[in-house]
Amino acid sequence: MAAQVSESDQIKQFKEFLGTYNKVTENCFMDCVRDFTTRDVKPEESSCSESCLQKYLKMTQRISMRFQEYHIQQNEALAAKAGLLGQPR
């Protein structure tokens, strides 16, 4: 049963990853690709798409860090409320 739950979680995470990947790809494509008269990717389109992806990755990293900070603060507040912090051992 545990293996099924783990497999189910993996499938869910993969679906979330694909959804995020598709959104980022679509957003960067819509913002950066302007010329459909040639099959070649123009240098400005390439640099725009790289920049777009870098912004997304930095934003995701920053949100993740803030989320972790928030949870640490919440856990410390709960521990202090329960009287677990600041007591001598």
Question: What's the helix and strand layout?
Answer:
Blueprint: H1 2-32, H2 43-81
Helix pairs in contact: 1-2
Family: Belongs to the small Tim family.
Membrane topology: Peripheral membrane protein
Main location: mitochondrion
Please tag this protein with its features.
89 residues; mainly alpha; 2 helices; transport; membrane; Mito_inner_translocase_sub
How would you describe this protein?
Helix content is 79%, strand content 0%. The protein is mainly α. It has a domain of 40 residues. Helix 1 crosses helix 2. It is elongated and about 70 Å long. This is Mitochondrial import inner membrane translocase subunit. InterPro entries: Mito_inner_translocase_sub, Tim10-like, Tim10-like_dom_sf.
Mean pLDDT across residues: 89
> Percent helix among the residues?
over 70%
What gross morphology would you assign? elongated
User: N- to C-terminal separation?
Assistant: 42 Å
The count of helical stretches stands at 2
How many β-strands, per DSSP?
0
**Poorly predicted parts:** none
Along the chain, the helix and strand elements come as: HH
Which class of secondary structure composition applies to the elements? Answer: mainly alpha
**Strand content range:** under 5%
Round the Cα radius of gyration to an integer and report it: 22 Å
The major beta sheet can be summarized as: none
Organism: Amphilophus citrinellus
Subunit structure: Heterohexamer.
Pfam families: zf-Tim10_DDP
Keywords: Chaperone, Disulfide bond, Membrane, Metal-binding, Mitochondrion, Mitochondrion inner membrane, Protein transport, Translocation, Transport, Zinc
